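Q: I'm a student working through a structural biology exercise. My instructor gave each of us a protein and asked us to get a predicted structure, then write a short paragraph describing it. Mine is Ribosomal RNA small subunit methyltransferase H. I'm not confident about reading structure output yet, so if you can add a plain explanation after the tokens, that would really help. Here is the sequence I was given:
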Amino acid sequence: MSGHVPVMLPEVLEALAPQADQVIVDGTFGGGGYSRAILAAAPCRVIGLDRDPDAVARGHLLAQEMPSRFTMVETQFSRLDEIDHPIDAVVLDIGVSSFQIDQAERGFSFMQDGPLDMRMGKDGPSAADVIAQLSEAELSALFHHYGEEREARRIARAIVTDRVDKPYLRTSELAGVVARVIGRKHHDGIHPATRVFQALRIYVNDEIGELEKALVAAEAILPAGGRLVVVSFHSLEDRAVKTFLAERSKAASGSRHTPTLTGPAASFDLITRKPVVASDAEIAANPRARSAKLRAAIRTCAPARPRPISGLRGVPTLDQIRRAA
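A: Happy to help. First, here is the predicted structure for Ribosomal RNA small subunit methyltransferase H. I'll explain a few features afterward.
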């Protein structure tokens, strides 16, 4: 499992508070750091989920070590409500893993040349497909909303102009055009291609949609007292978690004029009123932890409630891109 350092591990374990005989879902198995720590913290059982075949292979190794305590399932964490077993807690570590970034052939990193892929599940449209098929306006909206890139329009215009003569198939090619448009250094000091690559990765893997569905699924399957712990690394991800938990922890209200409570009862009680962040020592040892935010809550006995899943307006869905290919 070397190569991946689980972020905020002590804080995650404290929020999860694993107990004997519990069944805990590690919805983003990755390198297995959380799963192994949970199994070591209490005589419980863990079910690991991941859509990345490489992560699934690592999970099967752990299942061979601990066949009675760990089970690996290849699926999206948004489908955790399909688990046919009572669940006591769910932990999600959102975003790309060190394994994926470090493998040039996966196409996640602009620091290494590789195919412009970025698919966590290795199926569906790749980042190259997205770059080839989206219009200038659609690419601009994508970079702006998912990457929060200030130069989204200029970058999209350059990509659409250049792809007429040569398609973008390599990470180095895309990173190069972004650097050419906005210079060697980004306005906030990061690599110029950081936000464009981030936006593409989030879009190609529908990461915000998957997260929102997973939150709803966790609410549906967790019993009263069940715990939900989410670690995110991007402002859009954290905003989705914060909004969801704020809505679900808001109690029904009334007044002296209308003493009857109105609105649905709170389905979660917050463990963390504000996000927990990594310590200075952890950030120094693992720079990936610098943007991590942990939010956690405990399920109440109130019924789960549906929530519409949002999408990015002005940009086609992945299914639409697949059909157009």
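A: Here are two points you could use in your paragraph. The mean pLDDT is 87. The two ends are 37 Å apart (CA to CA). It's a good idea to check both against the output above yourself.
Q: Great, thank you!
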